Amino acid sequence: MVSFTVRFKFPTEERAEIAETLRQLAEASRKEPGCLSYIPHQVESDPDTVVIYEQYRDHEALAAHRATAHFQKLAVGGLYQRMREREIENLNALI
């Protein structure tokens, strides 16, 4: 299993558009056969920061996710163009 978080910082004035893009991306991603979990979160103490928790069956499923049309359009062509910061944390399950 492959698990990680992605932390983004976005401009305040784009908050509504970012939320809609994330809704569409989560909906499409969750339909992928190798996606186990895709959950965007807004940080309560900093609403301009979004954390996405993602889990995939394996590295092949993650590669397939990144190759999808919805990822290319909504993440690469959308979120990545609007972000101010991006940080990825790879996770190892303890149990």
Blueprint of the fold:
Layout: E1 2-9, H1 15-30, E2 35-43, E3 46-56, H2 59-67, H3 69-82, E4 85-91
Antiparallel strand pairs: 1-3, 1-4, 2-3
Helix pairs in contact: 1-3
Structure characterization notes:
This protein is globular. The chain has three helices and four strands. The chain is 41% helix and 37% strand. The protein has one domain (2-90): Alpha-Beta Plaits (2-Layer Sandwich), CATH 3.30.70.100. The chain has a four-stranded antiparallel β-sheet with strand order 2-3-1-4. It has 95 residues and is of the alpha+beta class. The termini are close together. The protein has helices at 15-30, 59-67, 69-82, and strands at 2-9, 35-43, 46-56, 85-91.
In short:
Helices cover 41% and strands 37% of the residues.
**How many domains?**
1
CATH architecture field: 2-Layer Sandwich
Number of strands: 4
Which regions contain 5 or more consecutive residues with pLDDT less than 50? none
Largest sheet: 4 strands, antiparallel
List the strand order in the largest sheet.
2-3-1-4
The ordered H/E elements are EHEEHHE
Count the helices. How many?
3
Q: From the alpha carbons, calculate the radius of gyration and give it in angstroms.
A: 13 Å
Q: Which CATH first-tier class would you pick? A: Alpha Beta
Task: Give the averaged pLDDT, no decimals.
Answer: 97
Strand content: 35-45%
What fold name stands as the CATH topology?
Alpha-Beta Plaits
Distance between the termini: 12 Å
Which range best describes the helical content: under 10%, 10-25%, 25-40%, 40-55%, 55-70% or over 70%? 40-55%
Structural class: alpha+beta
User: How would you describe the shape?
Assistant: globular
